[in-house]
Give the backbone structure.
Amino acid sequence: MRKTQYFILFSSLSFFVSATFIDTNQVKVADRESFLDTIPSSFGYGRKATQAEIDRLDIDVRPDGKGLPKGEGISAKGKVIFESKCVACHGVGGIGGPNGSLVANKTPTDKRREKTIGNYWPYATTVFDYVRRAMPFNEPGSLSNEEVYHLTAYLLNANGIIDEKAVINAQTLPKVEMPAKNLFVPDDRKGGAEIR
Amino acid sequence: MKLDKIVEITQRYPEKLSRRKLLGGLATAAVAIVQTAKGQTIQKAVSENAIYEDPTKKFGTPAGEIGTRSPYVKSVKKLSDISSRSPLQDFYGIITPSDLHFERHHAGVPAIDPNKHELLIHGLVEKPLVFTVADLKRFPSVSRIAFIECSGNFRGGKDNLTPQEICGLTSQSEWTGVKLSTLFNEVGVKPNASWFLAEGGDAAVMTRSIPVKKGWEDSIIAYAQNGEPLRPEQGFPVRLFNPGWEGNTSVKWLRRIELSDAPYYTREETSKYTEPIKEGKYRIFSFDMDARSIITFPSFPQQVEKGWIEIRGLAWSGRGKVVKVEVSTDAGKNWQIAQLNDPILDKAHVQFRYLWQWKGEETEILSRVTDETGYTQPTLKQLFEARGSDGGYHMNPITAWQIKKDGKVFFKPETFK
């Protein structure tokens, strides 16, 4: 008990002393600027990433095809994979499963059309990117690149976007024109008073 | 356990029963018994020994290693299939207790060992670098109190909704970390880099494209929240934090940033987090969270009494500071200026209050916020007029509460279709 009391007394005293010596209000603007200038151009923290490290993590795919791996796929093979690994959650033919349709239903029964790859996705590359990173939901990241190409071909074909025989690979996938390509506009709110 | 058995225990061994036990399961059992018991003596015995212990007559719980909530305080997040919502109606002040921060994740909360977690920054940079969590903590640090709101934060349609259910996907913390601009300098971001991809280390491997400009402006790579390391639900050990922007862009469990000269159009910025506007078009990359407010007291399912009522609520804007909150107590005919409690911070929840004398008339109470850009929170009707009536993300309408003659409060659902 006693020791603690001394300690508290001492520390509060020293705080008081230092506070009287360093008056932050006295620091001039010029000094602040020179303080900012002393921030080094490099701290030297972190280590250089090796190409192998980057390749291991760099799985993203852009609409222009950047990031697509080697390999190729066709719809018929994708259908087989879909029926074993996806159908339980996304429905037969990709329509009406408990976790959402992936294929645009030509004859929708609901008033509101379900948004799917066929009517709402602006780029085909997103199908490859998303399925590879996040699906199947219960076993994410378990598909080979080849399997993802097959599934991508299947989903595009089931949505009536590509031909049954079309081969999907790093060259052909970015060229696929999606029905929803022109559906989107960049944020049209400008800030300020206007309600948009 | 039988009634007389419990009574016997509480009479004979009151000291054997810890306070916690009494206040937990047993206390509720005892209370129920009191209500159904016939004998006077039994009621007395239970109440004196077990329930109404005089705290001034007994040494309390000794100092502990971790604090607790009073067992009388029951404040919990409300779960849905894919998220859990903050109990806005229970909050005081502007900070969300970390364990009540809303949750939205796309494949669960990952269990990450901070000693194994690293952040890779690469792409259009001079030096691709890998930072450990310890490395990130060595950089100059910043702290900022600001909200995170999911852009899908709107529910309506029925009158028995609480503030938590209507818009509990917003929460506020003090976030501490390193400015992303500091790391941009360290890796040497190239002049042609215009976007960056932020990627999480969860099972969704969540990705969003963010304009590089935001990173230079005010993005933080946060490792702490309200004075302690991030909670796992909030991205432990590191997350991106984009002040004022839709929550999904503040990618949690951040493992990688890639600088690029184009956006990626990931699934979360195309299939999701895009909203209908007019003429069959959809808005993409709508980052800013527009100003919003909600009265959190009185609200459903409370019942108020006649007399003075301090109407209280939260207001915020993703575009800057809140400058004004107005309250109407006559269903939107007249508006009065509410008091704003300090501190009023940039891109942060602010507390407002307005003193009102309720005389028992049936009415509706509403709040609307104006931010420093001059934007005033719209009605749902105005939003529908501007965007069409399909709803979707970024809905920030004025919320009205109906006050019934008996003082019961109900949400006012609105439809304009």
Summary: The longest strand of chain A covers residues 184-186. The first helix of chain A runs from residue 2 to 21. Helices of chain A lie at 2-21, 29-37, 51-57, 75-85, 87-90, 117-120, 125-134, 145-158. Chain A has two domains: 2-38, 61-175.
